[in-house]
Design goal:
The protein has 437 residues and is an alpha/beta fold. It folds into 2 domains: 285 residues, Rossmann fold, CATH 3.40.50; 112 residues, Topoisomerase I, Chain A, domain 4 (Orthogonal Bundle). The protein is 41% helix and 13% strand. The chain is built from 15 helices and 12 strands. Strands 2-1-3-7-8-11 form a 6-stranded mixed β-sheet, sandwiched between helices. It has a 3-stranded antiparallel β-sheet with strand order 4-5-6. A 3-stranded antiparallel β-sheet has the order 10-9-12. It is globular, with a radius of gyration of 23 Å.
């Protein structure tokens, strides 16, 4: 009897000490023009699944309006490269549509079932990790200084850092890795992510530049992927993840991505671990004809994320079969160009009112490029713009996101400026009929 009890104790101890792998995969955007983000997310899921992470430990957040979109010529199928395989089949629908929010993302990451329940989301999948577990987080969407966009809301860098630090203090992981596909994604970690909390992050871009979309598809009239995401996922598809380190994968992606400057942050010792430690330890036993086909270089024909809506229309003009069809796309181009001009003017008006119409100061703010440090000033401005200028649709208007650096400049160059004055300026401009708000 004593031997049996001892045996059961050993088994229980080993089981309790077992390391688990978790993955949280997010595409924050919606709409056909943003097809690539959900295609990236679906492909990432397939990699985790293929390498042995079970569905109960893979969480997928995506709007889910692409596979069965009216514009999809292949209903129910999503691809991530030209003539590529379907990556949508089997993808879990853990969080979709309006459930794709920063709060729900942080709740899923930290295992906050009570927080989800308070918002009416019962029984949703969350990461229930322990001190021995490894967590892989992949995000694809739009970004700006200190923010990642989720459909119609923002995840702020400090909120993400707060969640990570809390998880570390509560011993909810042994090691955690982030792969972030977004413009200015480096700003989510630069000077923010500690090097001693067992977290390693790589990003598609540095803190000041765009990430790039790739693979325009003439049949679908949209871009299929993002350069950084395609690079790391195609590498994971072909490499033995048990012999390739995170650092090796990063260096490959960095070297082969010539559209933006991929970055790494946090605990560099983690980068010496095998990719399998985060993307799944099982060696894939399945190969297909797609695994043997050399993929086209995603850098060729790649466009800045903020230029995607315009680029889609220009590409569509080229393949239009009738003059009527061509005129339709040209009309859309004119409307997009007008919206871009209006966006810049809206930002200029707000800054001008904030600075009492001092033209020299306004010019300085509009033309500088400062590093975000004054979060207390910047974050309320971003939220006020999102709420009071719905016409700009900033979370999904990547061109507007590219100009949020002007408000970083405003906060950094004029730190003594009363925040209420800036918020009041936003309200005043929003009341003007042709303001764009």
């Amino acid at each position: 009897m004593l031997k049996l009890v001892s045996f059961l104790f050993v088994i229980a101890f080993v089981y309790a000490d077992e390391q688990k792998h978790w993955a949280l995969i997010v595409a924050g955007s919606e709409g056909w023009d943003n097809y690539r983000h959900q295609a990236d997310a679906c492909h990432a899921y397939q990699i985790m699944k293929k390498h042995g992470i079970p569905d109960e430990r893979i969480i997928v957040m995506m709007y889910d309006d692409i596979a069965h979109n009216i514009e999809n010529p292949t209903p129910g199928i999503v691809i991530n490269r030209p003539n590529g395989p379907d990556v949508y089949h089997g993808v879990p629908k853990d969080y979709t549509h309006s459930e794709v929010t920063p709060k729900n993302f942080l709740a899923a990451l930290t295992g906050d079932e009570e927080g989800l329940a308070s918002r009416g989301l019962f029984g949703k999948k969350v990461i229930k990790s322990g001190p021995n577990d490894h967590i892989f987080v992949n995000f694809a969407d739009h970004g700006a200084p200190g923010i990642l966009a989720f459909y119609n809301k923002f995840l702020h860098a400090r909120d993400l850092m707060s969640a990570i630090n809390k998880m570390h203090s509560e011993q909810k992981y042994a090691k955690m890795v982030f792969y972030i596909e977004a413009c200015e994604s480096g700003s989510m970690f630069q000077d923010l992510l500690p090097k001693d909390i067992n977290v390693f992050a790589t990003t598609a871009a540095n803190a000041h530049e765009s990430s790039y979309a790739c693979y325009f598809d003439k049949k679908r009239r949209t871009y299929l992927g993002d350069v950084y995401s395609v690079m790391w996922m195609e590498d994971s598809d072909k490499e033995d993840l048990q012999t390739e380190t995170l650092q090796k994968q990063f260096l490959i992606v960095k070297e082969e991505t010539n559209t933006s400057h991929c970055q790494e942050y946090g605990d560099m010792s983690i980068s010496n671990l095998d990719v399998a430690e985060f993307q799944g330890k099982m060696k894939s036993r399945t190969t297909s004809k797609y695994d043997r086909i050399r993929i086209p270089n995603p850098n060729f024909g790649a466009v800045k994320s903020e230029d995607v809506p315009l680029a889609i229309q220009y590409q569509s003009v080229k393949v239009a079969e009738t003059e009527e069809e061509k005129d339709k796309y040209l009309t859309k181009i004119a409307a997009l160009e007008q919206k871009r001009t209006q966006t810049i003017e809206t930002f200029r008006r707000i800054i001008s009112v904030s600075l009492n119409h001092d033209s020299w100061k306004v010019s300085e703010v509009m033309s500088s490029r400062m590093t975000l440090r004054n979060f207390d000033c910047y974050e309320p401005i971003v939220e006020a713009l999102r709420q009071e200028c719905p016409g700009l649709n900033i979370p999904q208007n990547d061109y507007a996101l590219r100009h949020l650096y002007t408000f970083v400049n405003l906060c950094e160059i004029h730190p003594r400026l009363d925040n209420d004055e800036i918020l009041d300026a936003i309200s005043k401009v929003a009341e003007v009929p042709d303001s764009g708000c």
